[in-house]
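Hey,
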Amino acid sequence: LAAVNFFLGCVGIVQVTRILRWQSQSKKETITEVAQQDAEEAARTAKGIVKDPEAAAGIVKNPEAAAKSALQ
């Protein structure tokens, strides 16, 4: 399991690097600028999660009613 997680992490790093390179080439920005913008966006998202975690997680207020409606 640890090996799978390690390789999954490696794939994630490669994909993020590819995305950042593509974004920087398409906008003519440096990778550092793109990474900074992505970090700022992640920080805004995290603040929203901290402010209202239930809405962020999509928690249902009445799970029984949600289960019944899903079965219909």
